[in-house]
Design goal:
By secondary structure, the protein is mostly beta strands. Helix content is 12%, strand content 49%.
Length: 99
């Protein structure tokens, strides 16, 4: 499991071993699949991420997840981080599902 934190370091969501992303109330926000697909709560694909840490929405690069867990938007502003497991998928979730 990984904790998804906002820019102030507050936990705003978590990502489980199964890739399901839930907010702090435990409500499912969506999921991140092993193949890089990011899906909303009803299962529609809303974006993807690649092995280099880049996150895409409708084919357009919208941010990057660094290996230390920090997540940056397309303007290179830090918007939060991921602690624990699932750094890449958790960061992608922060950019597309949580923000």
């Amino acid at each position: 499991m990984g904790d998804i934190l906002n820019e102030a370091g507050q936990k705003v969501a978590k990502i489980g071993q199964d890739g399901v992303v839930k907010n702090i109330q435990g409500i499912k926000m969506g999921s991140v699949k092993d193949n890089g697909d990011i899906r909303n709560a009803v299962g529609h694909k809303i974006g993807s991420y690649d092995g280099s840490g880049y996150v895409y929405e409708a084919g357009r690069k919208i941010g990057k997840v660094h290996s230390d867990g920090k997540v940056f938007d397309y303007e290179e502003d830090c918007i939060g981080s991921v602690k624990g497991d699932h750094i890449q998928s958790g960061g992608a979730a922060l950019l597309l599902l949580v923000r």
